[in-house]
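pinning this so it doesn't scroll away 📌
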Amino acid sequence: MFQFIVRRLLQLIPVLIGVTILVFSLMHLTPGNPAHIIAGENAPVETVEQIEERLGLNDPIPVQYFDFVKDAAMLDFGNSWRTSLPVTDELWPKFWVTFELAVYSTIFSIFLGLIAGIISAVRQYTLSDIGIMLVALFGLSMPNFWLGLMLIQWFSINLGWLPPTGWGTPEQVIMPVITLGTMGAAVVARMTRSSMMDVISQDYIRTARAKGLKERVVIYRHALKNALIPVVTVVGLQFGSLLAGSVLTESVFAINGMGKLIIDRILARDFPVVQAAVLIIAVVFVLVNLIVDISYKFLNKRVDLD
């Protein structure tokens, strides 16, 4: 196990190098001069040139890239070109908001999806199964922003039960989590049903039932544990997607998180903030997948991590 973890951590290095190259290239290929945006449209040429010199934009591209990688390796992302504040001071508060949103949404999707998937698999081809799968299909097809707007209309405007915007209080958390976690719950439900149906048809499940074990023990102790591996894989991938793709939900509910920050700073050509944000998301995504791989061994001792 230790050797596997070390090997996977070493594999992070080329992945992160590729991410830095991609992010750096895309930001510098984006039309527009950051110095012009900072100085203003009517700024004299001398002012623009001074800003370019101060920001290092006149240096060769390879020099700029290696400076970025060297500073990032020391967790020094410099200062924002837009506000002149340290990037970490701007980034971390927004990151934790988005991280909390992704964690709560993942927990919601796991809880709802597992229950729905298990019921659907145990009662396969019944009205319960058909109804759950139809709801799951609806959840997969429904855009997040539309669901968020509908929840605001129902629970904030019509009923007045929940605040329409913001983040922090339990009441403010409910609708964004439902909005972001609904599609994930649908995916988990469908994957759980498919995996459970494969496991339930195995010989050892029939043997367990023939021994007189209670159906609850057969389902939860024997079937579910072996059916969770593909579900865990999906959950790990979804968490990374939620972390990187929550911008629409944050916009609908006016949540000041990472997604909104990235969009705003891309428009402002604030390269240090955007590069740091994408790099942090990439690191978290890879670490989550490492945790998923390690969890396979705990779910099934026969899994060979080597």
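📌 and the second one:
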Amino acid sequence: MISRLLSADTYPHIATPNLENVRILVVGDVMLDRYWFGDVSRISPEAPVPIVRIEKREERLGGAANVARNAAALGAYAGLLGVVGADEAGTQVETLLRDSQIHSFLQRDDAISTIIKLRVIGRQQQLLRIDFEEAPTDTVLRDKLTQFNALLPDYNVVILSDYNKGSLVNVAQMVAAARAAGKIVMVDPKGEDFTPYAGASVLTPNKSELKRVVGSWSSEEQLTTKAQALREELRLDALLLTRSEEGMSLYTADEVLHVHADAREVYDVSGAGDTVIATMAAMLGAGMTMSDAIMTANRAGGIVVGKLGTATVTRAELFGN
């Protein structure tokens, strides 16, 4: 089996792809990311914790919605299928989707609240994160699967963004339906069992996610053996392992491709995986080769970790036009 190390020197000229005709349907756990920024100047007399005087608030799309936001920022046609609550936060998600030119197919569930991740930031450092989350009801999830099957003909790439919050209990049926329809299926997995994702085009676990499924490894050769065995067992076209400061490794039937991390300065890694999977999906949808797509996704990940919070990368940042 061929093993290659890719770098900007070996792939210096990746042509700008035509993304206008790429249609990406993102399905998964939709969240609202809230940021409270403030000044920290003293410690509370009630407990040994900093007092943050809030000066600014921001709201951004999170989870699967951030994946769709990244796809739209690159110029692809992005649709989002997910579940939010029938509440103020769900309405805010809808507003942010319109602002980002993402086509919303959200279901509103009266029985739950929208998933919210609230981050408190003082002096450019995250001090606290508070999560509000509830799993969607069975009725809404059945409706979601029906809607997924109806939407499939309109898209050529499907991204299943699993944050283990309950929106993708029907993921096995979704993968099977999308592959039977000839779609590229990208999956960002969670949990200790990846068998529901069997048959996908590309699976994109990080190191900790892969270790929970295949166990630890003590060498690059052992990692390759375990990754390739999992890829074959799940009948994947490729397995993309994101390795933080070590870059990425792509395992296919023909070769193993390693790419060094492209981060200039790491400021915030939250949402970087969303950027990577959205970028690779968009590039594959535009007809790019696997090697060029992973190089481009690696570059996008290096750019986004230099930004605060869940952020996006534009086509101009990636290709300079």
